[in-house]
Amino acid sequence: MTTLAPSSDGRNAETLIASALSRLESVPYWLLALPLRLAVATVFWNSGTTKLANWATTIELFTEEYKVPVLPPEIAAYMAASIELTTPVLLVLGLLTRPAALVLLGMTAFIEIFVYPQAWPTHIQWAAMLLVLLCRGPGTLSIDHLVRRRFDAAAR
Length: 156
Hints:
mainly alpha
């Protein structure tokens, strides 16, 4: 029966760990960004379609529960629904991803500060996903990437 020296086992484990880390680090960014785009888009899209499903209830929520400062409830409701129904489409397509992420990050901050400050565990998750998209963009599987390639080629 042959036994391996302890140092050999340690090197094998180190090699396995290094190999696993290398594989994880080689995952293309677009593959990581796509579920972020879809997850954030789903949250806001569902909120927007819920607002449209019963506009009278939406106005009542903005009047009685949300109590958005400065804006009249009707204008705040229209603004929220418009943002929640347009930016998710942009995120899914990967079109104007960074501006869409910035708008949704601002909306998330507004909701956190003025409407539901106790919901920070949820809002911080949204913010984390949006910050990645804002800072790194949508990845190569996006219209933004195609447009950028087109402009880069035209600039040459």
